[in-house]
């Protein structure tokens, strides 16, 4: 048989391919385009078939690769439901999706094989873990068949995301299928549990007895699945330095690489428009605030700053405790200097509620009525004014505003009176007395009194365009705010500050969040770019809180112009967060996996002409970035201040040296394998630069 | 090119020692053919990893995995379990021709010329020379033959309860067909012949090509002193010629010296001085089955403990133990990779 030309096939395996459960879906979905661009037809994603999503998001078609077609057919012969086609997202990637429900017949055989080969069994009651076993074995089956259909010299790389897909990796290794494997954890199971349990996580990281901790929390089998996959993978990777540390101690393997999460900025980016969008969205928030503070509205909206914290309702993991405490201290400091700035601090955490708070709704209604009344009177006055002027008379005050109008206005203003303070929460909480956020707000006595410079509003529901209160979606809300505050304690990556950045909104993050770590190592002066990083790792709680308060206080003291300039700089980071740049880390992970299993392949393909199915990563010099590739413009602030709103070049203070161009180097240095074979990866990538 | 292979079979961990010696004895005489071992699921992971150092392919055969006919036949005649495992060799249709060697044989010279013979070539059995002995035979893998054998087993059974009876029934024309299928006795020299017909052994023994340690006591049951190379035979029916047993142990010691053998060797084989002595009649079909069954039962119970969330995570099920289990396969995979 004639040997086929060596080819490289890449698979990415995750439960969340065309199936939204949590954050991995976002990662895969946004990354697809840049990966397809790099790997083309030899890239395919493997997931499960969730009919609801498949109907909406997948275009079914038969595989075009003959090897894949045969592998799929063999499985279908055994009555396994396999959907093949393309995911209808940017990049249009190929997908192979298994219907787990068609495989339950095999469960006993497979769970036995798993136990026989690994010594790990699955408790009867854990259906999710059992489904993971089915998914894993189906994946290993498919990859095994596919491998058998390929020529000996071909190389197959498979990247598995999260413990949920780990069995696939484990069985590929146990069955000794020649596949170069990468395992990526986006967080560790045990880490999540331990953090939620309020142990002093990072200070005790090296002391945990991991088996016992997992066992006591009834997740030993899941932990074993995760750790076995991490142990067996040719390359082990996590999303951030902080998760890397966590994995090193909880999974007992130091990750070979960091794979930061990117975004697809193409759709979110508005270039020069973003400043205008900020103004438009801010006006909508103004509208809500007028209603919310009815009867107490003495704010100068031009001197009001909107800050917010948002995410899953994990009170301490997300740093809500720190947020409220810092707001309380900020309030004190602003009062001390008699500041005329008002800070309205939102907390957006979906929690269990019994619909909206009556006071909140009433405020919106009252203000709406006043607005309508004023509009009617305004039209009336306008007509009168026109009529009088037409007749050559200049009207006096009484001629314009007649008694009828005054009565109408007075009626509205009486309705506008309010004896209670503006509510701190927009909804009726199911468990008002024990809600941790409300409890803490009460302890700090931040009740939105007139004298308070910081007002708190807890919105315990996702934002939605159709809400009668704050009728805007999350993205729009973010655009309208001035500062996102995310001082998380446990945050393996954390998209929220990144989402702020691409909209040009500055944010606070922490050095315990993956994003914060990434920014810290890639920007030499993150604050200049509107990325404030609070130290939650090496400082005690009080110091951390003071640091956060300092940042907030400093932010409140900035002039409007300074904030506009800062937003321009912040928006520039977005290019840095795009997958077209961050996808390179994944490329390096794949190269490292090949280097550890088939070093000869990299050598062969290097001498190959770059045709056919072998695709090496494209050179990274091509996409130009504002950082490093351009000379900083000389200082010309005076001219630019006049056109702040369409200014995409206003941050003349930016020096290219502010940004350390460590993106490639840091990857490469971590890619060095213990036995030094990683050098191949280094030299080849370096030559691409 | 036509693919040809030597095939052997190991149904439990002890026979794996024999299989390893068969492979090493072929390798040291520079065979140019592939070497394949069929194993049953009872064989432990540790042994599997040891096997895959020497064999080109380690193939797990499970009687229960085979086709319905075989399955059905086995229900009728459960005593044929081990025999059926041997029949699996006919399913190796990726090869055009194979030579089967029992795990209790020892190759003394290059025997690649056996591939010039056709199916079914074998040596006569010393006990009944009109029959062939099924410890060494040349065959052509074929699903047709395999299915026919299963059918025959189901309808007629095996007159001696083992594979030899069944194969002699199927290839009944062996004794009357052309002489090229009748292999010389030297290709399957029963070790018992050394004393049942010692003058013949004295005359021809030096030309022996393959020894077959037939009988209940196998070379691995004897005691071997690694330092002196002395072998102390255990009592039992059928004493083997001491020089041959010593040769077997010499090859065994070579195997232990190979890379990837020692480190995966379990406590069971700690030091070669005292390999497990199972004495008595360790190799009777009955005993083997019973032991495998016990092991299977305890493993099943262990899985049930996991399934009812009753896991000894602080002890026997700690991840260190799981990892050690994984590593036997992972390390092996890595060595294979490095070799290639």
From TrEMBL, chain A:
The enzyme's E.C. designation: 2.4.1.11
Coiled coil: none
Pathway annotation from the record: Glycan biosynthesis; glycogen biosynthesis
Enzyme class: transferase
GO CC, any one term: cytoplasm
InterPro entries the record matches: Glycogen_synth
Comp. bias (Polar residues): 654-689
Cited Gene3D superfamilies: Glycogen Phosphorylase B (3.40.50.2000)
Reaction equation(s) it catalyzes: [(1->4)-alpha-D-glucosyl](n) + UDP-alpha-D-glucose = [(1->4)-alpha-D-glucosyl](n+1) + UDP + H(+)
Region (Disordered): 605-689
UniProt biased composition (Acidic residues): 637-651
Keywords in alphabetical order: Glycogen biosynthesis, Glycosyltransferase, Transferase
Single GO BP term: glycogen biosynthetic process
Pfam families reported for this sequence: Glycogen_syn
Molecular function as annotated in GO: alpha-1,4-glucan glucosyltransferase (UDP-glucose donor) activity
UniProt family annotation: Belongs to the glycosyltransferase 3 family.
Functional description taken from the UniProt entry: Transfers the glycosyl residue from UDP-Glc to the non-reducing end of alpha-1,4-glucan. Glycogen synthase participates in the glycogen biosynthetic process along with glycogenin and glycogen branching enzyme. Extends the primer composed of a few glucose units formed by glycogenin by adding new glucose units to it. In this context, glycogen synthase transfers the glycosyl residue from UDP-Glc to the non-reducing end of alpha-1,4-glucan.
Name of the protein: Glycogen [starch] synthase
Organism: Ciona intestinalis (Transparent sea squirt)
Gene name for this UniProt entry: LOC100183713
Automatic annotation (TrEMBL), chain B:
Annotated localization: Cytoplasm
Enzyme Commission number(s) from the entry: 2.4.1.186
TM stretches of this protein: none
Highest taxon in the source lineage: Eukaryota
EC top class named in words: transferase
Pathway given in the UniProt record: Glycan biosynthesis; glycogen biosynthesis
Cofactor: Mn(2+)
Single biological process term from Gene Ontology: glycogen biosynthetic process
Entries under InterPro entries matching the protein: Glyco_trans_8, GNT1/Glycosyltrans_8, Nucleotide-diphossugar_trans
SUPFAM superfamilies xrefs: Nucleotide-diphospho-sugar transferases
Predominant subcellular localization, coarse grouping: cytoplasm
Keyword set, alphabetical order: Cytoplasm, Glycogen biosynthesis, Glycoprotein, Manganese, Metal-binding, Transferase
Gene Ontology molecular functions: glycogenin glucosyltransferase activity; glycosyltransferase activity; metal ion binding
Catalyses which reaction(s): [1,4-alpha-D-glucosyl](n)-L-tyrosyl-[glycogenin] + UDP-alpha-D-glucose = [1,4-alpha-D-glucosyl](n+1)-L-tyrosyl-[glycogenin] + UDP + H(+); L-tyrosyl-[glycogenin] + UDP-alpha-D-glucose = alpha-D-glucosyl-L-tyrosyl-[glycogenin] + UDP + H(+)
Cross-referenced CDD domains: GT8_Glycogenin
Gene Ontology cellular component terms for the protein in this record: cytoplasm
Keyword flag Cell division: no
Pfam family, one: Glyco_transf_8
Function description: Self-glucosylating initiator of glycogen synthesis. It catalyzes the formation of a short alpha (1,4)-glucosyl chain covalently attached via a glucose 1-O-tyrosyl linkage to internal tyrosine residues and these chains act as primers for the elongation reaction catalyzed by glycogen synthase.
Similarity remark: Belongs to the glycosyltransferase 8 family. Glycogenin subfamily.
Protein name, as recorded: glycogenin glucosyltransferase
Lineage per the UniProt record: Eukaryota, Metazoa, Chordata, Tunicata, Ascidiacea
Gene: LOC100178599
């Amino acid at each position: 048989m004639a040997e086929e030309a060596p080819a490289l096939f890449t698979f990415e395996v995750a439960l969340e391919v065309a199936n939204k459960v949590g954050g991995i879906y976002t990662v895969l979905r946004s990354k697809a385009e840049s990966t397809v661009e790099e790997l083309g037809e030899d890239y395919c994603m493997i997931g499960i078939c969730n009919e609801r999503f498949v109907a909406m998001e997948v275009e079914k078609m038969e595989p075009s690769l003959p090897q894949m077609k045969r592998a799929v057919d063999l499985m279908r012969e055994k009555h396994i439901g396999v959907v093949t086609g393309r995911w209808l997202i940017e990049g249009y990637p190929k997908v192979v999706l298994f219907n787990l429900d068609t495989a339950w017949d095999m469960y006993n055989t497979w769970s036995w094989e798993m136990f026989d080969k690994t010594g790990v069994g699955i408790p009867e009651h854990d259906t999710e873990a059992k489904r993971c076993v089915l998914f894993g074995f189906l994946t290993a089956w498919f990859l095994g068949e596919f491998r058998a259909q390929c020529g000996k010299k071909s190389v197959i790389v498979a990247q598995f995301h999260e413990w949920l897909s780990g069995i696939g990796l484990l069985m590929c290794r146990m069955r000794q299928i020649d596949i170069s494997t990468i395992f990526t954890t986006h967080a560790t199971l045990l880490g999540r549990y331990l953090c939620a349990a309020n142990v002093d996580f990072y200070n005790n990281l090296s002391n945990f007895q991991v088996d016992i901790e997992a066992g006591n929390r009834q997740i030993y089998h899941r932990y074993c699945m995760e750790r076995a996959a991490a142990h067996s993978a040719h390359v082990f990777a996590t999303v951030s330095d902080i998760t890397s540390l966590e994995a090193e101690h909880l999974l007992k393997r130091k990750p070979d690489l960091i794979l930061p999460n990117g975004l697809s900025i193409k759709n979110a980016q508005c270039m020069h428009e973003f400043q205008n969008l900020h103004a438009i969205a801010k006006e909508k928030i103004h509208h809500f605030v007028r209603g919310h503070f009815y009867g107490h509205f003495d704010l100068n909206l031009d001197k009001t700053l909107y800050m917010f914290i948002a995410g899953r309702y994990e009170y301490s993991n997300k740093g809500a405790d720190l947020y409220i405490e810092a707001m309380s201290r900020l309030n004190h400091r602003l009062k001390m200097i008699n500041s005329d700035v008002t800070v309205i601090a939102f907390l957006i955490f979906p929690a269990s509620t019994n619909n909206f708070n009556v006071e909140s709704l009433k405020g919106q209604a009252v203000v709406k009525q006043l607005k309508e009344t004023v509009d009617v009177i305004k039209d009336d006055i306008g007509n009168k004014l026109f009529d009088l002027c037409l007749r050559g008379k200049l009207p006096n005050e009484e001629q314009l505003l007649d008694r009828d109008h005054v009565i109408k206005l007075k009626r509205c203003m009486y309705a506008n009176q309010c004896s209670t303070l503006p509510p701190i929460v927009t909804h009726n909480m199911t468990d008002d007395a024990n809600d941790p956020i409300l409890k803490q707000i009460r302890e700090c006595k931040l009740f939105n009194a007139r004298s308070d410079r910081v007002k708190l509003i807890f919105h315990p529901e996702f934002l939605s365009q159709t809400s009668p209160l704050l009728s805007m979606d999350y993205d729009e809300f973010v655009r309208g705010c001035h500062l996102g505050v995310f001082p998380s304690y446990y945050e393996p990556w954390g998209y929220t500050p990144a989402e702020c950045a691409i909209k040009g909104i500055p944010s606070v993050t922490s050095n315990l969040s993956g994003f914060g770590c990434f920014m810290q190592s890639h920007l030499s002066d993150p604050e200049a770019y509107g990325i404030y990083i609070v130290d939650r790792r090496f400082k005690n709680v009080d110091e951390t809180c003071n640091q956060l308060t300092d940042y907030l206080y400093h932010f409140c003291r900035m002039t409007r112009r300074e904030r506009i300039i800062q937003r321009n700089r912040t928006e520039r980071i977005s290019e840095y967060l795009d997958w077209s740049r961050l996808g390179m880390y994944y490329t390096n992970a794949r190269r490292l996996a090949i280097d550890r299993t088939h070093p000869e392949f990299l050598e062969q393909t290097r001498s190959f002409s770059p045709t056919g199915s072998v695709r090496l990563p494209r050179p990274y010099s091509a996409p130009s970035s504002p950082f490093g590739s351009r000379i900083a413009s000389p200082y010309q602030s005076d001219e630019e201040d006049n056109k702040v709103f369409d200014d995409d070049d206003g941050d003349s203070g930016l020096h290219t040296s502010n940004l350390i161009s460590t993106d490639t180097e840091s990857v490469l240095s971590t890619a060095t394998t213990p036995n030094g074979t990683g050098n191949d990866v280094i030299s080849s990538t370096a030559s691409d630069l | 090119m036509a693919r040809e292979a030597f095939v052997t079979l190991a149904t439990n961990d002890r026979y794996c020692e024999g299989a390893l010696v068969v492979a090493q004895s072929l390798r040291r005489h520079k065979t140019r053919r592939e070497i394949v071992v069929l194993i049953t699921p009872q064989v432990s992971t540790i042994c599997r990893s040891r096997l895959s150092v020497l064999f080109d392919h380690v193939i797990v055969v499970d009687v229960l995995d085979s086709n319905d006919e075989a399955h059905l036949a086995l229900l009728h005649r459960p005593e044929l379990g081990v025999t059926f495992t041997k029949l699996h060799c006919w399913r190796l249709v990726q090869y055009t021709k194979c030579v089967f060697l029992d795990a209790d044989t020892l190759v003394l010279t290059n025997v690649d010329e056996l591939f010039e013979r056709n199916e079914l070539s074998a040596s006569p059995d010393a006990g009944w020379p009109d029959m062939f002995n099924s410890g060494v035979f040349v065959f052509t893998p074929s699903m047709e033959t395999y299915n026919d054998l299963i059918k025959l087993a189901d309808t007629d059974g095996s007159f001696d309860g083992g594979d030899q009876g069944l194969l002699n029934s199927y290839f009944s024309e062996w004794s009357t067909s052309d002489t090229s299928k009748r292999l010389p006795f030297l290709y399957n020299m029963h070790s018992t012949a050394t004393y049942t017909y010692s003058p013949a052994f004295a005359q021809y023994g030096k030309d022996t090509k393959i020894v077959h340690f037939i009988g209940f006591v196998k070379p691995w049951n004897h005691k071997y002193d690694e330092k002196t190379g002395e072998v102390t035979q255990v009592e039992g029916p059928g004493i083997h010629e001491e020089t041959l047993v010593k040769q077997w142990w010499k090859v065994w010691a070579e195997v232990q010296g190979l890379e990837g053998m020692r480190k995966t060797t379990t406590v069971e084989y700690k030091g070669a001085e005292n390999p497990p002595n199972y004495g008595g009649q360790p190799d009777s079909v009955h005993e083997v089955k019973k032991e495998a069954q016990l092991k299977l039962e305890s493993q099943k119970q262990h899985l049930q403990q996991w399934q009812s969330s009753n896991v000894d995570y602080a002890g026997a099920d700690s991840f260190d133990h799981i990892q050690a289990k994984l590593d036997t396969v992972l390390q092996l995979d890595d060595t294979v990779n490095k070799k290639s």
